[in-house]
Amino acid sequence: MEFLQISPNDGFTLFAVLCLIIAISSHLEKTRWGAKISGPGLVIAISIAATHAAILPRQAPLYDLIWQIFVPLAIALFLLKADLIGIYQKGGRVLIAFILGALGASVGAVLGGYALDLGANENKLIAVFAATYTGGSLNFAATAEAVDFKQSSELSAALAVDNVIGTLYIILTIWLGGWAVLKRRFHWGAETADNAGTDNGESHSPPTLSDLLTMLALAAVACVIGIKFADYLGLDSFAVLFITVIAVGAATIGRNRLRSFKGEDILAMILLYMFFAVVGAGSDISEMLSTPPATFLLVGSIIGTHFLFLFVGGYLLKLNYRELIIASLACISGPPVAAAIAVSFGWREHILPGIATGVLGYVVGTFIGVGLFHMLG
């Protein structure tokens, strides 16, 4: 099987295989069982299988390129037709759901700490997992540094768990997004969004080359300006927020003109399918399985309590399934993934709230992790 292994530096071959994976997934999605998993879920699953078959490398310069260029470009493309009024109406509800989820994650971390024996670094493990499941991997790294968690073997295992659980969580939420029972139980306001998305005044004629190139150029310019501005302010990690503001600003100012352009959603989906393939390729299940069971139980406590707070509170407050899923992803996976899932489902009005709440998670996640570390210490 060695002849099938792709070198991390063989960028063109690697790109070709990723294209093959997303093309196969798009066809499988049209089958009865494939529709239940969805295209993004299939892409992730096939990529995980290819990596563990030693065909795809876990890390490669191309993967970094996809993270750095494809993801922000896809988000900008989809936001170029964002409806600010709809975002304003929905944004506050996603924020409420995010607060519920973040509170649940913190309570779950504390409960896990009291119920489990996690060894000498118990408080440090609780801190990093509480932080990462409020914001993202950025908070994992920042909290590990803040609490002096530098034991390489245990920290490496915790990172592997975070990476693989994060990937599996994305697959779970993709499945939840199409689950009929969830749609029935948490339907409030979702029908309005469906109706708004089915008739937005656009013609049904196919996109032209001029349409595609214009939208791609506008999205690229929005990304460059956002990244440069974030870099100038020393806020590189928050570049996606600046890109969002610029793209939405352009959409608002030129909404009448931009409405005539078509096809940006297709371009965005191609880029995001590449992103999902990279997410799957980077998952190391074998390293995760070597982690002590107590660590999995801690993660289970955090995510389980997160779900409990999110869906019980969401039911009482009549939040719909879209708001709950996007808020949950903003907590567990961070703003790029929350926005990517919103794009993949066509939930245009939830992209900006997902990014905004995800960035809020970046801001508060490290404080929560460090605070729990000292409280439990």
From TrEMBL:
Q: Which InterPro entries match?
A: DUF819 (IPR008537)
- Entry-linked Pfam families: DUF819
Q: Which organism is it from?
A: Pacificimonas pallii
Protein name according to UniProt:
DUF819 family protein
Q: Which domain of life is it from?
A: Bacteria
Q: Which UniProt keyword terms apply here?
A: Membrane, Transmembrane, Transmembrane helix
Recorded coiled-coil stretches: none
Check the record and name the PANTHER family matching this protein: DUF819 DOMAIN-CONTAINING PROTEIN, PROTEIN, PUTATIVE (DUF819)-RELATED
Q: Which residues cross the membrane?
A: 12-28, 40-59, 65-82, 94-116, 164-182, 235-254, 266-283, 295-317, 324-345, 351-373
